[in-house]
Amino acid sequence: MAITIISGFALDLEREDGCLWHACNGARRTRLALYRASGIEVERVPTTEAGLVVHIARGALPTWYQPDWREAAVYLQPSDADALYHVRLNKHCGFNVVPKDAELWSAWSHGGPKNTASKIAVIAPPAYCEIISYKHASPYSYVLLGMDGEVRWLGERSEVLAKHFRGDADATRLAELKGWLTALTAARSPLEVHDE
């Protein structure tokens, strides 16, 4: 069964025109949107992690539409295919996808108040979202987009590494992709003790 997992922002499930989410960072910026076809049911998934918003659309796959720079949209279309995709939404400062080739389609809308950036992306799991903070003021935070539809907050780099050392396979994979384990290994040089 086709499944699309939508995360990153609460959806407007009550709108009758099919638009679940939209963002535009200024009058002359790209308008980003997420729509559902008639008959596609989208439901919010309860999560235990604060701030994590996840929705699921069963029997639907994302279709990308970007005729020019003014508009980029994802349409949830009915499908019987056996596939799972993630759609990630952001209206704050955007995000990157790790690994980069997991990001199938994406569009940004830059500008607006305080130079914010919005982004929409269709992602093939497994992948991670690297959440950007305003003006890169704080470290990136990471979210897992799993093969089974899981969306899990991993935290900042230090938290990801702590999870790696506790045996979390997803944290270990992210640390390997980012090259953090190599950096940790390189830092392990024998200490020399000198008597004075």
Number of helices: 3
Radius of gyration: 19 Å
Oligomer classification: single chain
Low-confidence stretches: none
SSE ordering: EEEEEEEEEEEEEEHHH
Average pLDDT taken over every residue: 90
Overall 3D shape: globular
Portion of residues in beta strands equals: 35-45%
Q: Helix/strand/pairing class, anyone? A: mainly beta
Report, as a whole number of angstroms, the end-to-end distance: 71 Å
Identify the strand order in the major beta sheet: 4-5-1-8-11-10
Helicity range: 10-25%
How many distinct beta strands? 14
Major β-sheet profile: 6 strands, mixed
Number of domains: 1
General description of the model:
It is a single chain. With 196 residues, the protein is mainly β. It has one domain. Helix content is 13%, strand content 43%. The chain is built from three helices and 14 strands. The chain has a six-stranded mixed sheet, with no helix packed on it. It is globular.
Draw up the topology in text.
Blueprint: E1 3-7, E2 19-24, E3 31-36, E4 42-45, E5 54-58, E6 60-68, E7 71-78, E8 84-90, E9 95-98, E10 103-110, E11 117-123, E12 127-131, E13 141-145, E14 151-156, H1 157-165, H2 169-178, H3 180-186
Parallel strand pairs: 1-8, 3-7
Antiparallel strand pairs: 1-5, 2-3, 4-5, 6-7, 8-11, 9-12, 10-11, 12-13, 13-14
